[in-house]
Amino acid sequence: TRTDSDVPGWLVLDEETGEYVYDYDADAGQLNVLKRAVEAAGDEAIVEVFSNSPPYFMTVSGCSSGGFDPNIDNLKEDCFDDFAEYLAHVTNYIQNELGIEVTSVSPMNEPNTNFWGANSYKQEGCHFDAGESQSKIIELTYEALRQYDLDNVMVVASDETSTELQIEEYNLYSDKAKEYLGRINTHTYNPTRIGELGQLAKDEGFNLWMSEVDGNGVAGTDAGEMGAALWLGEKIINDINSLSPSAWVLWQVIDKHICEEGYKGRQDSGMIDITQGFWGTAVADHDNVDIILTQKYYAFGQFTRYIRPGMTLIHCGADSLAAYNKDTKELVIVALNKTAEDKYVNYDLSQMAAVGGRVQTIRTSGTIEDGEHWAQLEDMGTYGDGFVAELKANSVTTFIVDGVELGNIELEEVPVSEATVTGSMAWNNGDDTADKVVDGDTQTFFDGTAEGWVELDLGESVKFDVLGFAPRTGYEGRMNGGRFYGSKNGEKWEEIYVVSYAPASGMNYAILDKEYNYRYIRYDVPEGRAEGATEDYMCNIAEIALYKIKD
């Protein structure tokens, strides 16, 4: 029933000749939006061409919304070359006729699902089986782009709906498809094994995008219009901290419409209840030629206006996201408060080489009618290597810290793989035992339980001043509150470091307050549970590593 679900193809039937010819004005509306977006973005514009479905006449069902059986390929076997040529031709027109540089082409969208059935008004879609079919269209699209001398345009895939499916599909690509692939794209509607996908991309040497997600969720406590806004902020932070993508892309900025006349006999549901969850961040009122903004829109801007292309993302605790601008030496932190009470947060910046004295503060809270919308608050000061900030109830706040320098540190690893490892029992006496913490694999882990512990005997005392650790993927929050100790004799222990946040998936590094010299290293968790937690502390940890800072 969506009025925006009908996307015209560029190949149309010439009634006189009976052949399909290109109509470059067939989808003029979408091209107009593209032109305006590129104009607004300027040099920061990044354009990706993606396809939901091949033209209807190339499909088995003769329908661009999907197949009669949505579980099998819907692109005709003899049309793979034709579809690749179509994608390359359209890309060439956009780049060389319209003068808009295209970065990438994605030939598939959520391909290995059963979402896309024939004769549906929902959205165009096309099933491609994992393995041979997906590999074939990646290879042919790459080769077709080269036929048009579009060597600057990469092929990306698979834009799968879940991170687990994306892992499985990548592993089934042919060697040639992997060679031709320029980037991995994934959606996070179902973020199962999300950290594993991020690590896979790093291991395979691929850039990674979270290329689509949205939803009608809410977060916060009695948050009203901020509920959808806080849900979006939570989704952005969780995805980026778990997946480490180089881009996070919202499905549609405008996904809801008001139009009395409708479109081809269809009408959208009209104005949404902005105190509930909804897709998109704004509503297009076609009857009054207006765009109705929401607090979800302003919450999105708390990220996008201040975390800009080229900045370096820095993992930090739950409900916070940080990014560093090396040119301006500014650190940007976006923080959520999903509780109904104002609260204070201490941001420890002692890991930075230098910290300035000024903190700018921008906030969104309340309602669209009388709330805050990117409100510029009074500047704060730092206390040297950090700052304390008040987070308003049910709010999204952006802090910009000046004069920040990360430094240039080179690390020398202190070997721990030969250490003798002991520990408490794994959960249910399973195989995820304590020795996993030194196997060099961040996807294996010690599945310790409440009051669990793990100890390393390095055989002799070693010097180190940086601690490395990796949480169990998918359960990163279980390391929040975890404690590291050192000992010379295995009896008298000194606390080295306490994890005061939910670390990112993969390896995390902490510069310690001094150089330590110990034979034994211990990790454990406190008794009981943290305030507001839903479970007891659990001794889950994937890796422990030690380093020395090179002179």
From TrEMBL:
Transmembrane segments: none annotated. The keyword Glycosyltransferase does not apply. This is Discoidin domain-containing protein. SUPFAM superfamilies: (Trans)glycosidases, Galactose-binding domain-like. Keywords: Glycosidase, Hydrolase. It comes from the Bacteria. GO terms for molecular function: hydrolase activity, hydrolyzing O-glycosyl compounds. Residues 404-523 form the F5/8 type C domain. Pfam families: F5_F8_type_C, Glyco_hydr_30_2. InterPro entries: 6GAL-like, 6GAL/EXGAL, FA58C, Galactose-bd-like_sf, GH, Glyco_hydro_b.
